[in-house]
Design a protein that fits this description.
about 250 residues; mainly alpha; 3-stranded antiparallel β-sheet; rod-shaped
Length: about 250
């Protein structure tokens, strides 16, 4: 129960408040000022309500984002798990293929005697100078027109260039088969450019261009290179396809 002193203080406080209200009611300026304060308080109340609604909306949005991130993380884990399984299967298949290849080699032939090639994108075997050693098209290096085609080119120079063209082709098609998850913007742009170079005649063939040779090959684009490309075309190793201000060297 409140003491007499507390009751007295509360009573005096209310009397003072009533007195202030009477003064304000009789003073036009104070009434206007009090009205402005009341309007400000109402505006603040509306603003607070809007802030509470916005906070609730943000909380819900954050919750959805967290759920989405959790789902994305689970999808990535599942994807990596499947990739690991596929890689293990591919390794098993590759090992089995290697065993099969080794067992099917001709008698007296070791794996080191077989010319290593790029898978699915290689030029044919080296050119040679043996009279009795013909390529698959029946053309002999020794019977190439020496004056206007071979000139001062040596077999070693030609075969070194074949190795370089193999390397160029390998680099290009390694980019083309890059998995989407590992593609950077630079790789995606390169793949898009390679696709734009294709046409109806290149369908089913792998090919390289001068730009590919400049980018991936450690050789000069000069008369010597074009002479070697002419020799390879004459021997049926490559075929030229022109169009769109571009020369494509198809691997036949």
């Amino acid at each position: 129960m409140n003491s007499i002193e507390e009751i007295k203080d509360e009573f005096e406080s209310k009397i003072k408040a009533i007195t202030v209200h009477r003064i304000i009611r009789n003073d036009a300026y104070l009434q206007c000022l009090a009205g402005g304060i009341l309007q400000d308080l109402e505006c603040l109340e509306v603003t607070l309500q809007k802030m509470e609604m916005e906070i609730e909306r943000k909380v819900k949005l954050i919750k959805k984002q967290e759920d989405l991130m959790e789902m994305t993380s689970k999808i990535k884990e599942l994807y990596n798990h499947n990739n690991n399984n596929n890689n293990n299967n591919n390794e098993s298949t590759a090992s089995s293929s290697a065993l099969t290849t080794s067992s099917s080699l001709p008698n007296g032939t070791t794996p080191t005697q077989i010319k290593k090639r790029f898978v699915n994108y290689d030029y044919d075997d080296y050119l040679n100078t043996q009279e009795d050693d013909e390529d698959e098209n029946g053309s002999k290096f020794t019977k190439l027109p020496k004056k206007y085609m071979i000139g001062r080119l040596s077999v070693e120079k030609i075969n070194n260039t074949i190795d370089t063209l193999n390397q160029v082709c390998g680099c290009k098609y390694d980019i083309l088969i890059t998995h989407k998850s590992k593609q950077t913007d630079k790789i995606r742009n390169a793949i898009r450019e390679y696709k734009n170079e294709e046409n109806g005649e290149t369908k089913g063939f792998n090919f390289i261009t001068e730009n590919d040779i400049k980018q991936f090959g450690q050789i000069k684009i000069d008369k010597s290179l074009f002479s070697i490309l002419t020799i390879l075309r004459h021997c049926g190793r490559i075929r030229e396809v022109r169009g769109g201000n571009l020369v494509r060297y198809l691997i036949t």
